[in-house]
Amino acid sequence: MHSLQTLTKSFSAWVIFCCCCCLPLLLTSPLPPKGPGLASTSHHACRLRKINFQQPYIRNRTYTLAKMVQVSDQDTDNRFIGQQLYVNVRENNRCYMMKRIVEIVVKDVLLTEVKDRYPYVGEVAQFLASLTSELSRCKFSGQKEHMEKNLEEMKSKMKQLGENGKTKAIGELDLLFDYIENACTDTPKKGVNKKKN
Ligand SMILES: *[C@@H]1O[C@H](CO)[C@@H](O)[C@H](O)[C@H]1NC(C)=O
Hints:
The protein is mainly alpha-helical. It is about 65% helix and about 0% strand. Helix 4 packs antiparallel against helix 5 (about 120-135), helix 4 packs across helix 6 (about 145-170) and helix 4 (about 95-110) runs antiparallel to helix 7 (about 175-185).
Protein backbone atom coordinates (compact mmCIF):
# COMPACT_ATOMS: atom_id res chain seq x y z
CA MET A 1 0.00 0.00 0.00
CA HIS A 2 2.67 2.41 1.08
CA SER A 3 4.91 1.56 -1.86
CA LEU A 4 2.01 1.91 -4.27
CA GLN A 5 1.39 5.43 -2.96
CA THR A 6 5.02 6.33 -3.46
CA LEU A 7 4.87 4.91 -6.91
CA THR A 8 1.77 6.96 -7.78
CA LYS A 9 3.36 10.07 -6.33
CA SER A 10 6.57 9.63 -8.16
CA PHE A 11 4.63 8.88 -11.32
CA SER A 12 2.63 12.14 -10.97
CA ALA A 13 5.84 13.98 -10.29
CA TRP A 14 7.29 12.50 -13.41
CA VAL A 15 4.25 13.54 -15.45
CA ILE A 16 4.43 17.07 -14.10
CA PHE A 17 8.14 17.17 -14.79
CA CYS A 18 7.51 16.02 -18.32
CA CYS A 19 4.81 18.59 -18.99
CA CYS A 20 6.74 21.47 -17.50
CA CYS A 21 10.21 20.80 -18.76
CA CYS A 22 10.38 18.26 -21.54
CA LEU A 23 7.38 19.34 -23.59
CA PRO A 24 8.34 23.00 -23.96
CA LEU A 25 11.88 21.90 -24.76
CA LEU A 26 10.58 19.50 -27.35
CA LEU A 27 8.36 22.16 -28.88
CA THR A 28 10.89 24.94 -29.04
CA SER A 29 14.07 23.17 -30.01
CA PRO A 30 13.23 22.14 -33.60
CA LEU A 31 12.09 25.64 -34.59
CA PRO A 32 14.47 27.61 -36.77
CA PRO A 33 15.91 30.75 -35.20
CA LYS A 34 13.66 33.77 -35.50
CA GLY A 35 14.64 37.40 -35.90
CA PRO A 36 16.73 38.70 -38.79
CA GLY A 37 16.07 35.54 -40.81
CA LEU A 38 12.33 36.08 -40.67
CA ALA A 39 12.58 39.70 -41.68
CA SER A 40 14.65 38.85 -44.72
CA THR A 41 12.26 36.10 -45.87
CA SER A 42 9.30 38.47 -45.86
CA HIS A 43 11.41 40.98 -47.74
CA HIS A 44 12.20 38.36 -50.36
CA ALA A 45 8.70 36.91 -50.54
CA CYS A 46 8.06 38.90 -53.72
CA ARG A 47 11.30 37.84 -55.35
CA LEU A 48 12.04 35.05 -57.80
CA ARG A 49 15.46 33.75 -58.60
CA LYS A 50 16.83 34.77 -61.99
CA ILE A 51 17.59 31.13 -62.72
CA ASN A 52 13.86 30.49 -63.22
CA PHE A 53 14.01 32.56 -66.37
CA GLN A 54 17.36 31.39 -67.64
CA GLN A 55 16.28 27.90 -68.61
CA PRO A 56 16.44 27.89 -72.42
CA TYR A 57 13.99 24.99 -72.71
CA ILE A 58 10.98 26.60 -71.06
CA ARG A 59 11.70 30.04 -72.47
CA ASN A 60 11.78 28.53 -75.93
CA ARG A 61 8.52 26.64 -75.33
CA THR A 62 6.78 29.75 -74.04
CA TYR A 63 7.97 31.97 -76.90
CA THR A 64 7.29 29.33 -79.55
CA LEU A 65 3.74 28.82 -78.31
CA ALA A 66 3.13 32.57 -78.21
CA LYS A 67 4.51 33.13 -81.73
CA MET A 68 2.47 30.23 -83.08
CA VAL A 69 -0.77 31.68 -81.76
CA GLN A 70 -0.03 35.31 -82.60
CA VAL A 71 -0.68 34.67 -86.29
CA SER A 72 -4.31 33.86 -85.56
CA ASP A 73 -4.88 36.97 -83.46
CA GLN A 74 -6.05 39.71 -85.82
CA ASP A 75 -7.15 42.12 -83.10
CA THR A 76 -4.46 44.72 -82.54
CA ASP A 77 -6.61 47.15 -80.53
CA ASN A 78 -6.61 45.19 -77.32
CA ARG A 79 -3.64 44.25 -75.22
CA PHE A 80 -3.72 42.46 -71.86
CA ILE A 81 -0.09 42.58 -70.84
CA GLY A 82 1.21 46.14 -70.93
CA GLN A 83 2.11 49.21 -68.92
CA GLN A 84 -1.58 50.00 -68.34
CA LEU A 85 -1.55 47.25 -65.70
CA TYR A 86 0.88 49.28 -63.62
CA VAL A 87 -1.09 52.53 -63.59
CA ASN A 88 -1.06 53.75 -60.00
CA VAL A 89 0.64 50.57 -58.79
CA ARG A 90 3.87 51.17 -56.89
CA GLU A 91 7.01 49.44 -58.10
CA ASN A 92 7.28 47.24 -55.01
CA ASN A 93 3.81 45.85 -55.69
CA ARG A 94 4.37 44.97 -59.33
CA CYS A 95 5.58 41.47 -58.64
CA TYR A 96 2.44 40.81 -56.61
CA MET A 97 0.37 42.20 -59.46
CA MET A 98 2.08 39.94 -62.01
CA LYS A 99 1.55 36.98 -59.72
CA ARG A 100 -2.19 37.66 -59.79
CA ILE A 101 -2.14 38.00 -63.58
CA VAL A 102 -0.24 34.77 -64.04
CA GLU A 103 -2.80 33.04 -61.81
CA ILE A 104 -5.62 34.35 -64.00
CA VAL A 105 -3.90 33.33 -67.24
CA VAL A 106 -3.17 29.84 -65.92
CA LYS A 107 -6.63 29.24 -64.51
CA ASP A 108 -8.87 31.00 -67.03
CA VAL A 109 -6.86 30.36 -70.19
CA LEU A 110 -4.21 27.66 -70.10
CA LEU A 111 -6.12 25.10 -68.06
CA THR A 112 -9.22 25.33 -70.23
CA GLU A 113 -9.95 23.42 -73.43
CA VAL A 114 -7.18 25.37 -75.28
CA LYS A 115 -4.75 22.96 -73.71
CA ASP A 116 -5.72 20.36 -76.30
CA ARG A 117 -5.60 22.81 -79.16
CA TYR A 118 -1.97 23.91 -78.99
CA PRO A 119 1.27 22.18 -78.08
CA TYR A 120 3.33 23.03 -74.97
CA VAL A 121 0.36 24.57 -73.14
CA GLY A 122 0.61 22.06 -70.30
CA GLU A 123 4.34 22.58 -69.82
CA VAL A 124 4.05 26.34 -69.88
CA ALA A 125 1.11 26.25 -67.45
CA GLN A 126 3.14 24.08 -65.10
CA PHE A 127 6.10 26.43 -65.28
CA LEU A 128 3.95 29.48 -64.58
CA ALA A 129 2.17 27.71 -61.74
CA SER A 130 5.55 26.89 -60.18
CA LEU A 131 6.39 30.60 -60.21
CA THR A 132 3.16 31.58 -58.49
CA SER A 133 3.64 28.92 -55.87
CA GLU A 134 7.13 30.27 -55.19
CA LEU A 135 5.44 33.63 -54.71
CA SER A 136 2.78 32.23 -52.40
CA ARG A 137 3.90 34.42 -49.50
CA CYS A 138 4.15 37.55 -51.62
CA LYS A 139 1.58 40.04 -50.32
CA PHE A 140 0.42 43.43 -51.48
CA SER A 141 1.45 46.35 -49.34
CA GLY A 142 -0.78 49.40 -48.97
CA GLN A 143 -4.03 50.32 -50.70
CA LYS A 144 -5.13 47.64 -53.11
CA GLU A 145 -7.92 49.44 -54.94
CA HIS A 146 -5.99 50.69 -57.99
CA MET A 147 -4.41 47.32 -58.54
CA GLU A 148 -7.75 45.52 -58.21
CA LYS A 149 -9.29 47.97 -60.65
CA ASN A 150 -6.56 47.33 -63.24
CA LEU A 151 -6.98 43.59 -62.74
CA GLU A 152 -10.74 43.82 -63.13
CA GLU A 153 -10.32 45.74 -66.37
CA MET A 154 -8.11 43.03 -67.74
CA LYS A 155 -10.47 40.27 -66.62
CA SER A 156 -13.55 41.91 -68.05
CA LYS A 157 -11.80 42.63 -71.35
CA MET A 158 -10.80 38.99 -71.55
CA LYS A 159 -14.31 37.82 -70.80
CA GLN A 160 -15.77 40.20 -73.36
CA LEU A 161 -13.44 38.87 -76.07
CA GLY A 162 -14.40 35.27 -75.31
CA GLU A 163 -12.42 32.71 -77.33
CA ASN A 164 -10.44 35.48 -79.01
CA GLY A 165 -9.45 36.68 -75.56
CA LYS A 166 -7.93 33.32 -74.78
CA THR A 167 -6.08 33.29 -78.08
CA LYS A 168 -4.78 36.77 -77.38
CA ALA A 169 -3.63 35.81 -73.87
CA ILE A 170 -1.68 32.85 -75.28
CA GLY A 171 -0.15 35.10 -77.93
CA GLU A 172 1.02 37.35 -75.11
CA LEU A 173 2.73 34.61 -73.10
CA ASP A 174 6.13 35.89 -74.26
CA LEU A 175 5.25 39.31 -72.87
CA LEU A 176 3.96 37.76 -69.67
CA PHE A 177 7.22 35.85 -69.30
CA ASP A 178 9.22 39.08 -69.65
CA TYR A 179 6.93 41.08 -67.40
CA ILE A 180 7.07 38.66 -64.50
CA GLU A 181 10.82 38.38 -64.90
CA ASN A 182 11.23 42.14 -64.78
CA ALA A 183 8.81 42.61 -61.90
CA CYS A 184 10.02 39.77 -59.71
CA THR A 185 13.78 39.42 -60.20
CA ASP A 186 16.39 41.72 -58.75
CA THR A 187 18.28 42.77 -61.84
CA PRO A 188 15.79 44.06 -64.37
CA LYS A 189 16.84 43.80 -67.99
CA LYS A 190 18.64 46.87 -69.21
CA GLY A 191 16.76 49.07 -71.60
CA VAL A 192 13.28 48.07 -70.47
CA ASN A 193 13.45 49.96 -67.20
CA LYS A 194 15.84 52.70 -68.18
CA LYS A 195 13.70 54.04 -71.01
CA LYS A 196 10.69 54.37 -68.73
CA ASN A 197 12.33 57.16 -66.71
C1 LIG B 1 13.30 27.12 -80.08
O1 LIG B 1 14.22 26.07 -80.34
C2 LIG B 1 14.20 25.60 -81.67
C3 LIG B 1 15.08 24.38 -81.78
O2 LIG B 1 16.11 24.38 -80.84
C4 LIG B 1 14.63 26.75 -82.58
O3 LIG B 1 14.65 26.33 -83.94
C5 LIG B 1 13.66 27.89 -82.43
O4 LIG B 1 14.07 28.99 -83.22
C6 LIG B 1 13.54 28.33 -80.98
N1 LIG B 1 12.45 29.27 -80.88
C7 LIG B 1 12.48 30.38 -80.19
C8 LIG B 1 11.28 31.22 -80.25
O5 LIG B 1 13.45 30.69 -79.50
